[in-house]
């Protein structure tokens, strides 16, 4: 089905329909699954929502790694709730993608065999407990920056999923900030761990917004379709401007000597991340790519008996219904 959609892309977009479609978007209307849409719109959304869903699911792994080692019962309960939320986010988003004519199984298979991507950040390890604070604070913080504007995206199911997700994301960021604050105010050793987590996760967090606008391949059309609401660099700048005062409040050192308030621009200057590292991680060469995909493949394989059992049960019920009619 997905392959068929991709093939038919060039054939069904007649200019009049395209103009009417664009006019609806410009007028702020939502596009719903049964409405006509250009194949490029459908395809871009499947890629974007699918990648987003995969990121929620794979994103459970670096944090799940610490559930058994959380320092207190309270921290464990908070982390457990957060990781469960991420599973829920993945489900909302897979459901939104399914309304575009791709099945959840197809999307999952494309993740598992590497045809679809997930956010590069989850290919970095969480080495100490302070990393869990830094992930909530910086990674969920960057995610919110991206997701809040997407509540106004043009595709109805995606927009509605984002509204639900954003409510939970702000809790995620607060719990992260609270955890790292505790470390930053703790013993010299805890403080050192908090600084180390910030230093390691800063540039990978900046990478979450995607390449610089000048190198971003999908931006212009996506902005026109309101699939993307801001450019990558706009969002990255917003994130830096929000986060630097928080770093200062924590009394931690800035993770980049290039961070400096620029009076003229009214924004913080900062050093761009190393984009060659970003592309390398996306290609599969990050520190944890192999582990993450192996874990997802194992979960999929281990769950086969459950899927088979549920399907057999559904088939049996359907057959009984037919026999009763
Ligand atoms: Fe999430
Ligand atoms: Fe989150």
Automatic annotation (TrEMBL):
Any one Gene Ontology BP term: phenylacetate catabolic process
Record-level GO cellular component terms: cytosol
InterPro entries assigned to the protein according to its UniProt record, in alphabetical order: Aromatic_CoA_ox/epox (IPR052703), Ferritin-like (IPR012347), Ferritin-like_SF (IPR009078), PaaA (IPR011881), PaaA_PaaC (IPR007814)
Any one GO molecular-function label of the UniProt entry: phenylacetyl-CoA 1,2-epoxidase activity
Gene3D superfamilies reported for this sequence: 1.20.1260.10
Protein name per its UniProtKB record: Ring-1,2-phenylacetyl-CoA epoxidase subunit PaaA
Lineage: Bacteria, Pseudomonadati, Pseudomonadota, Alphaproteobacteria, Rhodobacterales
């Amino acid at each position: 089905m997905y392959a068929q959609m991709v093939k038919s892309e060039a054939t069904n977009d007649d200019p009049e329909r395209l103009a009417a479609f664009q006019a609806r978007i410009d007028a702020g209307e939502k596009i719903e699954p049964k409405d006509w849409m250009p194949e490029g719109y459908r395809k871009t959304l499947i890629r974007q929502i699918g990648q987003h869903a995969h990121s929620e699911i794979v994103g459970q792994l670096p944090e799940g790694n610490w559930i058994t080692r959380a320092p207190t019962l309270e921290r464990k309960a908070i982390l457990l709730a957060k990781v469960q939320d991420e599973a829920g986010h993945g489900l909302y988003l897979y459901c939104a993608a399914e309304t575009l004519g791709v099945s959840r199984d197809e999307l999952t298979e494309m993740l598992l065999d590497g045809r679809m991507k997930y956010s590069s950040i989850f290919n970095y390890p969480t080495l100490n407990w302070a990393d869990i604070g830094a992930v909530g604070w910086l990674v969920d913080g960057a995610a919110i920056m991206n997701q809040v504007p997407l509540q106004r995206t043009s595709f109805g199911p995606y927009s509605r999923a984002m509204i639900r997700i954003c409510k939970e994301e702000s809790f995620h960021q607060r719990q992260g900030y609270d955890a790292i604050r505790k470390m930053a105010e703790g013993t010299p050793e805890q403080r050192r761990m908090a600084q180390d987590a910030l230093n390691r996760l800063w540039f990978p967090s900046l990478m979450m917004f995607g390449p610089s606008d000048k190198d971003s391949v999908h931006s212009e059309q996506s902005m026109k379709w309101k699939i993307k609401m801001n450019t990558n660099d706009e969002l990255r700048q917003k994130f830096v401007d929000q986060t630097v005062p928080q770093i200062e409040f924590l009394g931690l050192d800035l993770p980049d000597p290039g961070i400096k308030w620029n009076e003229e621009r009214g924004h913080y200057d900062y050093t761009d991340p190393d984009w060659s590292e970003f592309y390398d991680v996306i290609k599969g060469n990050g520190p944890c790519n192999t582990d993450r995909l192996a874990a997802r493949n194992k979960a999929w394989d281990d769950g086969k008996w459950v899927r088979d059992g549920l399907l057999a049960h559904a088939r049996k019920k359907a057959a009984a219904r037919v026999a009763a009619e």
